[in-house]
Task: inverse folding
């Protein structure tokens, strides 16, 4: 039985059914982490191309990273705006805030994270006040990152529906859902013992270390994990950065498991088609876009290995040198995003500077934010060594590239399974447990020989390698088709814009 949500303006005025429909107004509340806000902004821009108003809320330094993208879209006439709200750390018992005053997750030390989430939850009041007093038009739908349970009250108070936003694939979200729903880890004491994911036709094994469930297994986070689960269960629908042709059974499986509609809208990175917007996506790049393109232009098609572990993960110094030596030994041209120099100790810096000199011309090190979407879409890109953040994985799919999978934490182990076992486009380096957020940090998880072998396998790899590359190219064709007019993701974007117009009555459950 579908539940019907009457989409009404967030005022007390009655919306007359016969009145001409006014555009939807989506309010995006992303998690303040680049892997979440970047696809949320892209989704907002895609909805704005269909005439929907979109307001994106963020904290000040997080907003600063995506402002150039939003401003450029506004200048081109899209009805999108970005509003920032500072965090009140004192109100959650952190009178001096978190070190460095961080308001974006990649800069928050783990021991401050729970307090940080509490401070973010206090944004509800200021956001609501802003929407009532300043928004160009009342909100008609909240699109909330699934990690923000407090948006349940925000949406209820405004009297509008709330969609859960996932920058994750349906396979991952369904696996996590099923291991929790069917208590797959009950009685399993060893966090590294594989269990079969219940409720799926195909057999996949996971361990509790790899897929503990969202916010599960961290002492002190139990209530937050429960709140997040409740908010997911009570959502009026789901927006996901994936496309249905890539994983039809898992999209349908999650919709059925939750009894709610899933709008697949990706790969949202394909919104960006020009060098300038590709280069500005997500942050200010540490390399000039034209220099980067010139470097790539000099290389043969499909010859360059791109190496990046996303916006949060960073490696131990000894691991840095093993990776560098493996790349050097592979003999392929490469771009390696080594992040800011300040993130490395003296030994790692000395190693990286030495490597940079030795491989000049063949290897390019990017010291900070890389224009990743620009690099992956260049014809010289040949393979992507990735930590399997979902955005990176999907960006590889959109670019038609095979991946070397090296998960570090959270959903990345399931995304690795997606790339290797579901899609058949990945070569694993064989990491079995998370390396982030643990006290017994290991120096070296993947040795140089393994790096070299995995890179060779992705770039060459005989028949298996060719099969992976073929599958990756075929997927990219489907991904682009999904985003074109008439494609599945494009149709879902149009549907969302229509469903949440003022006065629309939308069935949000399947
Ligand atoms: N990204 C980028 N340049 C960088 C690092 C990351 O453009 O130097 C982008 C990348 O394209 C992706 C996002 O940041 O869109 C990272 O998200 P992902 O889910 O891959 O990983 P996370 O950072 O959340 O671990």
Result:
């Amino acid at each position: 039985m579908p539940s019907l949500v009457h989409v009404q303006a967030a005022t007390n005025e009655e919306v007359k059914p016969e009145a001409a429909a006014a555009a939807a107004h989506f309010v995006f509340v992303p998690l303040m982490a680049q892997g979440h806000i970047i696809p949320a902004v892209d989704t907002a821009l895609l909805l704005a191309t269909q005439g929907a108003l979109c307001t994106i809320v963020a904290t000040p330094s997080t907003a600063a990273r995506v402002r150039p993208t939003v401003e450029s879209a506004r200048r081109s006439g899209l009805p999108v705006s970005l509003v920032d709200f500072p965090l009140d750390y004192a109100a959650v018992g952190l009178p001096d805030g978190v070190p460095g005053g961080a308001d974006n997750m990649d800069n928050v030390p783990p021991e401050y994270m729970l307090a940080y989430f509490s401070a973010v939850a206090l944004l509800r009041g200021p956001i609501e006040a802003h929407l009532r007093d300043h928004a160009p038009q009342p909100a008609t739908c909240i699109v909330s990152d699934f990690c923000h349970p407090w948006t349940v009250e925000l949406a209820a108070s405004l009297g509008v529906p709330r969609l859960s936003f996932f920058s994750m694939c349906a396979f991952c979200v369904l696996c996590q859902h099923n291991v929790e729903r069917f208590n797959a880890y009950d009685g399993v004491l060893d966090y590294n013992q594989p269990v079969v994911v219940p409720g799926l036709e195909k057999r996949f094994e996971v361990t509790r270390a790899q897929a503990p469930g969202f916010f599960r297994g961290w002492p002190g986070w139990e209530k937050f994990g429960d709140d997040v689960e409740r908010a997911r269960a009570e959502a009026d629908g789901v927006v996901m950065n994936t496309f249905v042709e890539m994983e039809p059974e898992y999209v349908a499986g999650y919709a059925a498991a939750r009894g709610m509609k899933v709008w697949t809208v990706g790969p949202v990175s394909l919104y960006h088609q020009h060098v300038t917007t590709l280069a500005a996506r997500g942050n200010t790049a540490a390399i000039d876009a034209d220099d980067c393109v010139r470097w790539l232009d000099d290389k043969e098609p499909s010859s360059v290995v791109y190496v990046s572990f996303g916006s949060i993960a960073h490696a131990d110094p000894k691991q840095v040198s093993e990776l560098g030596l493996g790349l050097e030994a592979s003999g392929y041209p490469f771009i390696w995003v080594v992040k800011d120099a300040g993130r490395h100790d003296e030994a790692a810096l000395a190693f990286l500077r030495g490597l940079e000199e030795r491989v000049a011309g063949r290897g390019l090190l990017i010291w900070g934010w890389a224009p990743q979407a620009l690099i992956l879409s260049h014809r010289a890109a040949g393979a992507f060594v990735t930590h399997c953040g979902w955005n990176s994985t999907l960006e590889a799919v959109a670019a038609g590239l095979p991946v070397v999978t090296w998960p570090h934490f959270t959903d990345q182990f399931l995304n690795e399974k997606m790339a290797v076992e579901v899609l058949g486009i990945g070569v694993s380096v064989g990491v079995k447990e998370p390396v982030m957020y643990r006290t017994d940090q290991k120096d070296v998880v993947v040795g140089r020989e393994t790096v070299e072998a995995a890179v060779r396998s992705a770039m060459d790899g005989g028949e298996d390698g060719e099969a992976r590359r073929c599958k990756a190219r075929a997927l990219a064709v489907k991904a682009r088709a999904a985003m074109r007019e008439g494609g599945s993701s494009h149709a879902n974007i149009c549907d969302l814009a229509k469903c949440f117009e003022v006065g629309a009555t939308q069935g949000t459950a399947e």
Q: What stands out?
A: Residues 267 and 368 are 24 Å apart (CA to CA). The two ends are 8 Å apart (CA to CA). DSSP finds 18 helices and 17 strands in the chain. The chain has two domains: 4-168+228-270+482-499, 284-479.
